[in-house]
Specification:
This protein has one domain (5-122). The longest helix is centred in the C-terminal third of the chain and has 22 residues, at 74-95. By secondary structure, the protein is mainly α. The radius of gyration is 16 Å and the shape is globular. The chain has helices at 5-25, 32-43, 47-55, 60-67, 74-95, 99-118, and strands at 72-73, 121-122. It is 73% helix and 3% strand.
Length: 126
Amino acid sequence: MGRFSRPILIVCGWLCVGLGFVGVFLPVMPTTIFLIIAAWCFARSSERFHAWLIAHPLLGPYIRDYLSGKGMPLRAKIVALSLMWIACVSSAIIVVPVLVGDIAVIGCAVAGSWMILRTPTRRPGL
């Protein structure tokens, strides 16, 4: 791993942990997807942080359910897809001034949607 990539992954991981934690309490914020990204970042940068996140009593079950194949709750999928598309379309219209950039932003939204839709939907009570 590069000299600079480890700290960047750790910072991104903690940012996603923070956003995921907020999502536990706010119905408009997705939780699972941020925690999955945090786990991915920590798995590549810090065994200690990764183990902490997986074992955390509040946040860990979201990741363990995903990793065990139980998937994401339907509510988390709906919120994640909605917020992602709102942000990407808004960025494409307002922020990105060139067509190639717009295509790239929408392409990222399509890829993210594909990943979320491929993830199994966890049924209540599991």
